[in-house]
């Protein structure tokens, strides 16, 4: 009886193993095939540009793509392809790859959503992937809003242009964002969101930080507070004001603990502490670059 029970339990557990196993990432052969499969599956494409001589590429393979959380998200939400930079020089030029590894996230139509330059540990890489999915959602929203814009009233058109300015900025299209923002302001729209976008489009880190600080003082409790604190921290980090940057990034977490801004802020704050604030004696001065520096 005991033997029968043991065999029965073993059989049940064996049946559960496939359901519990982490799905494997399907690395498609070639970018054209990956884009075709992405269109069919309605998923973005992760393009990993690598070379055989790149040590950081091997580290990405060994430590990041094997992380169960990363592997699960890639398997469930992305179509993945590797591109040998030495062999596919035309693609390297097309996507302006200037170092390895470079990971580019493309939408199903081949439009770039995000670029991850260099090696990032699994925790930060996972955040980047989730952000890429958010950006894809924003791009879809932008397409819908552009369709609505054709028949919108002047007041609604101004609101749409303000939202499109936000979306274009998040997607990295700064010129388009500035144009949309100008249209919204020309129509007389002057909201906290418009003024935040205006601050975020300032190129100089010091001036951007000043504008963001003023905006945060004027808009306590705003739903955009976490993003504003995050961007303030990044602007301060670009000026190598490490302690101030960490304080602002911590405020981003306090404003919205479960948001993408919080997760990203925590990861970047840890990098800043490890590299520039809590450095062991004898490691030299903290002059290395970080955060867009």
Could you describe the 3D structure shown?
- The N terminus is likely disordered.
- It is built from 13 helices and 5 strands.
- The longest helix has 28 residues.
- Among the domains are: 101 residues, 3-Layer(aba) Sandwich (Glutaredoxin), CATH 3.40.30; 78 residues, Tetratricopeptide repeat domain (Serine Threonine Protein Phosphatase 5, Tetratricopeptide repeat, Alpha Horseshoe), CATH 1.25.40.
- Strand 4 and strand 5 form a beta hairpin.
- It is of the alpha/beta class and 293 residues long.
- A 5-stranded mixed β-sheet has the order 1-3-2-4-5, sandwiched between helices.
SSE arrangement:
Elements: H1 2-20, E1 27-28, H2 31-41, E2 45-50, H3 55-64, H4 68-77, E3 79-84, H5 89-94, E4 102-106, E5 112-117, H6 122-149, H7 154-170, H8 174-186, H9 192-200, H10 205-218, H11 225-238, H12 242-255, H13 260-277
Parallel strand pairs: 1-3, 2-3
Antiparallel strand pairs: 2-4, 4-5
The coarse silhouette is globular
Number of contiguous helices: 13
CATH superfamily of one domain: Glutaredoxin
Report the major sheet: 5 strands, mixed
In what order do the strands lie side by side in the largest sheet?
A: 1-3-2-4-5
Gap from first CA to last CA: 69 Å
Low-confidence stretches are: 1-20, 282-289
At CATH level 3, the topology of one domain is Glutaredoxin
The SS-based structural class is alpha/beta
Name the average pLDDT: 89
Gross CATH architecture of one domain: 3-Layer(aba) Sandwich
Proportion in β-strands: 5-15%
């Amino acid at each position: 009886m005991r033997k029968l029970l043991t065999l029965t339990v073993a059989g049940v557990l064996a049946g559960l193993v496939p359901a519990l196993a982490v799905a494997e990432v399907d690395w498609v052969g070639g970018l054209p095939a990956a884009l075709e499969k992405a269109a069919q599956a309605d998923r973005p494409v992760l393009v990993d540009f690598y070379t055989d001589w790149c040590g950081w590429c091997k580290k990405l393979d060994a430590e990041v793509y094997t992380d169960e959380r990363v592997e699960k998200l890639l398997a469930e939400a992305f179509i993945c392809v590797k591109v040998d930079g030495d062999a596919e020089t035309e693609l390297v030029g097309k996507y302006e790859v200037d170092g390895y590894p470079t990971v580019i996230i493309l939408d199903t139509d081949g439009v770039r959503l995000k670029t991850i330059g260099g090696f990032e540990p699994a925790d930060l890489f996972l955040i980047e992937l989730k952000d890429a999915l958010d950006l894809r959602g924003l791009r879809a929203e932008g397409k819908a809003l552009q369709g609505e814009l054709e028949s919108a009233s002047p007041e609604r058109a101004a609101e749409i242009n303000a939202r499109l300015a936000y979306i274009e900025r998040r997607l990295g299209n700064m010129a388009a964002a500035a144009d949309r923002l100008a249209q919204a302001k020309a129509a007389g729209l002057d909201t906290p969101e418009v003024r935040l976008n205006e601050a975020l489009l300032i190129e100089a880190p010091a001036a951007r930080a000043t504008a963001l600080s003023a905006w945060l003082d004027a808009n306590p409790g705003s739903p955009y507070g976490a993003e504003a604190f995050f961007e303030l921290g990044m602007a301060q980090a670009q000026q190598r004001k490490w302690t101030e940057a960490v304080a602002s990034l911590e405020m981003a977490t306090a404003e919205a603990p479960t948001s993408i801004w919080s997760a990203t802020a925590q990861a970047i704050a840890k990098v800043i502490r490890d590299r520039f604030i809590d450095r062991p004696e004898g490691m030299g001065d903290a002059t290395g670059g970080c955060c867009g520096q």
